[in-house]
Write a structure and sequence with these properties.
Immunoglobulin-like, 3 domains
Length: about 375
């Protein structure tokens, strides 16, 4: 958070030659916020030819202030010598005001008691501090192109009131019909619910994005400007869509085995990570029983040939397998896939072989008859 203000160190020179002591004081921070602290330095110089004896310093702070220590006994200070001491000032919860700390310095020259009084002012200024809490979206799983509402709590955690608050939503990744919200004021300790309606840009990919939110505001007296940027997390998802198919297979007779080429396509918009396929061994026995695929990108596919041992009875069978995979955020998912496998009778396979032999001969015969006709 940036604060527009001033850092001042005031020095006051109090010279009273008749009192024999010259006193300088410095305040490390002239402007204090509630529940803060600062340091006051006092420098005493004895410029008279006499020794200042029994020097005592008493501190009398106004309400809301504590001074440590509030009493110092310096003893004696020879002519021409100087002494410096410091006082810690602690400011408690306190309204805007100017507070005074009164220092009384007592000492003796010979038998004469003398006294020096100092009033050191401190200005109490309370600053507003705006924070964002409880950020939420109207949907748990947001996809590119979705329209959702963004809601959060704007809280004033500072000790001062905030005025003329403007909240601006950056539209790099989203489109908002209204991207600026104005709040007239927010007192110290108060909160307000802020809501934006937005649409996620459809061209975005699945992933994590940050939405910059700029907050501009002033203090109670509209004399200090503050600007702060908060980053709101936007996590985009996309549903997984897998398509399982058999590209080709051997003519597998009942009770025998043959090779089947399977294909798994990722038709979704999200890449699948650490993909693992495990076949369920029931009527059909499969080798290998499991396959590690690795990453399967969106709009991509994986193909593999597997050895399938058919049952003793012919028919259409369903080969089932469980597909395990992780999303971009490391969450584990699983999906059941099915592949259709055809198991033929031995007679059908013999007939198919006969057709395969007869078909070329028939083609040759037709060509011969066509040539003779010409």
């Amino acid at each position: 958070m940036k604060k527009v203000g001033f850092f001042l160190i005031f020095t006051l020179l109090v010279i009273q030659p008749s009192l024999a002591l010259n006193v300088n004081w410095n305040v490390l921070d002239q402007f204090l916020a509630p529940s803060s602290e600062t340091l006051i330095l006092l420098s005493l110089t004895n410029e008279l030819p006499k020794t200042a004896k029994k020097i005592e310093i008493f501190a009398y702070p106004e309400t809301c202030l504590n001074v440590e220590p509030n009493y110092v006994n310096l003893g004696s200070l020879e002519s021409g010598n100087s002494y410096q001491t410091s006082f810690r000032v602690i400011l408690n919860e306190c309204p805007y005001s100017t507070k005074l700390i009164k220092f009384v310095i007592k000492y003796y020259t010979d038998s004469e008691e003398k006294e020096l009084n100092l009033n050191i002012p401190l200005s109490v200024i309370a600053y507003p501090i705006l924070e964002i809490e409880n950020v939420s979206y109207s949907k748990e799983f947001i996809e590119p192109g979705d329209s959702v509402s963004l809601k959060f709590v704007l809280s004033n955690k500072g000790s001062g009131d905030a005025k003329n608050i403007k909240i601006v939503l950056n539209q790099t990744f989203v489109i908002a019909p209204v991207n600026e919200i104005f709040v007239k004021d927010l007192k110290s300790g108060e909160s307000k619910i802020i809501e934006f309606q937005l649409t996620v840009k459809p061209e975005l990919k699945v992933g994590v994005y940050t939405l910059p939110l700029t907050i501009v505001y002033q203090d109670k007296f509209e004399k200090q400007d503050f600007i702060d940027t908060k980053l709101i997390r936007l996590k985009l998802y996309s549903n997984f869509t897998f398509f399982a198919s058999v590209e080709r297979q051997d003519l597998i007779k009942a009770g025998s085995d043959g090779y089947v080429e399977i294909k798994i396509a990722n038709l979704g918009k999200q890449d699948a990570k650490s993909v693992f396929l495990k076949f369920i061994q029931d009527s059909l026995r499969v080798k290998p029983s499991q396959i590690y695929i690795g990453d399967l990108d969106a709009r991509d596919f994986y193909a593999e040939s597997i050895l399938v041992k058919a049952p003793p009875k012919a028919g259409d069978y369903t080969l089932r397998a469980i597909l395990y995979y992780k999303d971009l955020y490391g969450n584990l998912h699983e999906k059941m896939l099915e592949f259709k496998i055809e198991v033929s009778r031995k007679e059908e396979i013999s007939f198919n072989k006969f057709i395969l032999v007869l078909a070329p001969l028939a083609v040759i015969l037709l060509l011969f008859l066509f040539i003779r006709k010409i």
